[in-house]
Amino acid sequence: xxxxxxSPQSLHVQEGDSTNFTCSFPSSNFYALHWYRWETAxxxxxxxxxTLNGDEKKKGRISxxxxxxxxxxYLYIKGSQPEDSxxxxxxxxxxxxxxxxxxxxxxxxxxxx
Amino acid sequence: xxxxxxxxxxxxxxxxxxxxxxxSPISGHRSVSWYQQTPGQGLQFLFEYFSETQRNKGNFPGxxxxxxxxxxxxxxxxxxxxxxxxxxxLCASSLVQLGGGxxxxxxxxxxxxx
Lengths: 113, 114
Known about the structure:
heterodimer; A: 113 residues; mainly beta; six-stranded mixed sheet; 11 strands; 0% helix; B: 114 residues
């Protein structure tokens, strides 16, 4: 069973603050790392799929970095807005242990206006 | 374009019964994967189907099964329901095999076993 961990579990920030959270995953047999945003009462929405060590991806105010050698990815949100409030999930895909997507427990972000 | 559609949205079943959930993927997507979400366990991978073949299965008992049809629509079946099967079941579709591209999720089926 693969271990994918996210920290912190929850985060409260003020509107305008920048924030970041971490996803740790096994550094062997890496294939891809996914990030999803899951708002309450909605479906999870893909943010990024990252495959290359050192990769950096950006979508608006949200960006992510990837370090496959040490097994971590950071998600950054610049100038948080209340609409950024959601649970952010990372998921690790390996090409060895059964080709499955293993999700972390998520980071729940709450942005206060 | 239409998103991933799951039916039904809500379901109440009695322990020991069986249930079938349906997932219609985005047109052109050949991969459909299924997940179980419970408060204690988070989002857990059940299985993935690609071109009507099961590629992989998560750590779930044989009571959980699925299939995919030639039009890529997928069904998931749970037999001999247990109280612990109460959960939100999500399906997702991808253009390519899972892992290689982003997954697009449906809104889920909320199953309650009483």
